[in-house]
Write a structure and sequence with these properties.
Alpha/beta knot, 35% helix, 4 helices, alpha/beta, 24% strand
C-alpha cells in the first residue's frame, strides 16, 4: 500500500526534513510526499484506488501506535492501494475536507507546527509498518 503524505508548506532543508527522511528510508511500503502551498493549490486525487484519506486534525482521534497499525493493516488487507495523509497549514483543514476524510487523527491535545507534525507522522508510519511486520522496534507499556 502506498503511504502518501500530502502536506501544506515546503519543508526545505531543516531538522524536521532530516527526521522525515530518516523514518521514510526505513518504511518498506510505498512512500510519496506531495507538498502544497500554504494557501491555495488542490489536493491531488488518489494515484491508486481503492484509497483512504486520513486528515491530521486537532479534533481527530488519539490512537495508540498499535491501534494506528491495526487500522493500516486492515486497510491493506482489504485491498486499499493508497492511504493519503493530509497535513494542513497553520489554519488546519476546512470543514468539507474533514467531513470527506475516512479518518481524523490528532497527535494529542496540543497544537503542533505542521512541519513537526510531518516528522511525527513519518515516525508513526514507520512504527506502524514495523508493528505489522513483527519488528521489535515498538514496545508496549
Amino acid at each position: 500500500m502506498l503511504l502518501h503524505v500530502i502536506a501544506r508548506g515546503k519543508i526545505g532543508r531543516s531538522p524536521e526534513a532530516e527526521l522525515v527522511d530518516r523514518y521514510a528510508r526505513r518504511i518498506s511500503w510505498g512512500w510519496k510526499v506531495t507538498e502544497l502551498p500554504d494557501r491555495g493549490g488542490t489536493v491531488p486525487p488518489p494515484s491508486h484506488t481503492p484509497s483512504r484519506t486520513v486528515a491530521m486534525d486537532e479534533r481527530g482521534r488519539q490512537l495508540t501506535s498499535s491501534e494506528f497499525a491495526a487500522i493500516l493493516g486492515r486497510w491493506r488487507d482489504d485491498g486499499v492501494r493508497e492511504t493519503r495523509f493530509l497535513i494542513g497549514a497553520a489554519d488546519g483543514h476546512d470543514e468539507a475536507l474533514r467531513e470527506s476524510a475516512d479518518l481524523l487523527i490528532a497527535f494529542g491535545n496540543a497544537t503542533w507546527p505542521h512541519m513537526l507534525a510531518r516528522a511525527m507522522l513519518a515516525e508513526q508510519l514507520w512504527r506502524a509498518t514495523s508493528i505489522l511486520a513483527g519488528h521489535p522496534y515498538h514496545r508496549e507499556g
